[in-house]
Amino acid sequence: MRVLVTGGAGYIGSHTVLALLEAGREVGREVAHADGQKTGQTERQAAEPHEITIVDSFVNSSPAVLARLAELSGCEIKFHEFDLTDYQKTLELFQAEPFDAVIHFAGLKAVGESVEKPDLYYHNNIASALSVINAMLKTGVNKLVFSSSATVYGEHTPVPYKEDSGYHLEATNPYGQTKVIIERILNDAANANPGWKVALLRYFNPVGAHESGHIGEDPLGIPNNLMPYVAQVATGRREQLTVHGDDYDTKDGTGERDYLHVSDLAQGHVKALDHLEHQQEPARAYNLGTGQATSVLEMVEAFRRASGQAIPFTVGPRRAGDLATAYADPTRAATELGWRAEKTVDEMCADTWRWQSQNPKGYTP
Ligand code: NAD
Ligand code: UD1
């Protein structure tokens, strides 16, 4: 398939680009004996090779990612740098390249910043989604995979979250609201346009890095999220972690989340894309999580084991807007997409550590 990956230079997008290229490479791969000698047989053709085009504005990523993707994949990846809120440029790209499908990652994602600058978040996230949708309508592209978030379940949905836990999606901050609104726009667009197929992927907490250690998460400034913060404490870049509250009604009093390896998440996109043509509903939501809840203290201990480094921490007050426990019921993704998260918390920590220790300043040389 010819796939446009918006935001493909970002954390999840870059891992997904590799997974898509890898899925394509498996087609017709020659089967070898254990000693490396060819058997003359080829593996069953499991997937079509994908041709990838990335669009990114680098508002939250580095151009250095592109060279690493080319190196890791051995493939040429087409790239265009522009802001997707520019509808004209978006349309020109769709008119110049005949895409079969789009994976739309591009968006701003910092919860705290979205509370301070809601106009920026509503404009960037919603205008770029509308550019993509309108360009698809104009050029007859009708398959889309969208990066949604577990944040759409809001504060009142009981755990484990199920996709249809009441369709009263809500979110507690402007970032989350953009996901709720875009899900609604996509539902309406898919229902109004025969042949449209949209997968709304609700991610839980993606962590980890590619096993090579060459690509990973590289947040700008002080990380807000647990795993990149812990990783920077382990390298000595930050002094200590602040645990946001230890008086929750959880196994050890600290917040529990459903962490999943970014490479498993990337594989979820490959499966969702393959499944689109078989999807019955015009738009369908899928949870991508493990179904397991891990506490902050369990994560800190797992990272200490994986890195061999001390992770000093202090306990602070609860963070505004935080929930005690959030985790997925991942049954639908398993039964309908044939996807399951496979990697353990220890693997997530080991791969984050490999990336962080080999690239202590991320993509900055
Ligand atoms: P990221 O910031 O690393 O990647 C997003 C990419 O989109 C960046 O490269 C950024 O430069 C680009 N971008 C943003 N606005 C753009 C625009 N207007 N035009 C062109 N490019 C633009 O974030 P990520 O962690 O890879 O997340 C990808 C998607 O998944 C986002 O939509 C995010 O909201 C969603 N998501 C992420 C998480 C998470 O924990 N990382 C959880 C749930 C959902
Ligand atoms: C946060 C966002 C969520 C977003 C997700 C992925 C909030 C309230 N929620 O989710 O909308 O979709 O990131 O980007 O910001 N923790 C600490 N110390 C830290 C950092 C985190 O104790 O320095 C704790 C948190 O309190 C939480 C857990 O670690 O219990 C995970 O936090 P985080 O990684 O920020 O993810 P979420 O809060 O799940």
Distance between the termini: 35 Å
Summing up helix and strand content along with how strands pair, one would put the structural category as alpha/beta
Main sheet properties: 7 strands, parallel
Task: Specify the CATH class.
Answer: Alpha Beta
In short:
With 365 residues, this protein is α/β, with parallel strands linked by helices. The chain has a single domain (2-30, 40-358), classed as Rossmann fold, CATH 3.40.50.720. Helix content is 38%, strand content 18%.
Account of the 3D structure:
The mean pLDDT is 93. This protein has eleven helices and 16 strands. The longest helix is centred in the middle third of the chain and has 22 residues, at 118-139. The chain has a single domain (2-30, 40-358), classed as Rossmann fold (3-Layer(aba) Sandwich), CATH 3.40.50.720. The strands form five sheets. A seven-stranded parallel sheet has the order 5-4-1-6-7-8-13, sandwiched between helices. With 365 residues, the chain is an alpha/beta fold. It has helices at residues 11-25, 64-73, 87-96, 111-116, 118-139, 174-192, 226-234, 262-275, 296-307, 331-337, 345-358; strands at residues 2-6, 30-32, 38-42, 51-56, 78-81, 101-104, 143-149, 197-203, 205-207, 241-244, 256-257, 259-261, 283-288, 294-295, 313-316, 325-326. Helix 1 packs across helix 8 (262-275). Strand 2 (30-32) and strand 3 (38-42) form a beta hairpin. Bound molecules: nicotinamide-adenine-dinucleotide (NAD) and uridine-diphosphate-N-acetylglucosamine. Residues 7, 9-13, 55-61, 83-85, 105-109, 124, 128, 147, 149, 203, 206 line the site of nicotinamide-adenine-dinucleotide.
